Amino acid sequence: MCICCPALRSRSRQPVKRYKKLLADIFPKSPDGSANGRKIMKLCEYAAKNPFRIPKIAKCLEERCYKELRSGHTESVNVIADVYNQLLCMCKEKMACFANNLLNNVVEMLDSAKTDAIKIIGCLTFTKFIYSQVMCVQSVHL
Hints:
Blueprint: H1 18-26, H2 37-49, H3 54-71, H4 74-90, H5 99-111, H6 116-141
InterPro entries: EFR3-like_ARM (IPR049152), SRL2-like (IPR055296)
Pfam family, one: EFR3_ARM
């Protein structure tokens, strides 16, 4: 085996986790691009079918949100909020797996003093989270 050729190194032969590829695909390639709704749905469907991956997906989203908030990229923060909103709709029974990460991100969005747009995104995400909690409680009582 040639150690000079990067394609033959043992590390390059390891497969990429599918959820990491799906997470990378949801963000626009250009800073002013829009979110890819189809890729967001694919990620949420993957999470619904593989609930043991939800904590890892939520952790990656939380870390990415902190990074984007520090950079001031409102569009990327909006994409992360969209993913959480879809997860709230599709993975209601597994909400406990990502609720802590979601609330940490909401707190960071609301504490962010850079723009009001990020605070609005945080408020809307928190409102949808509360609404999902209420709907889950009502469905249990029925």
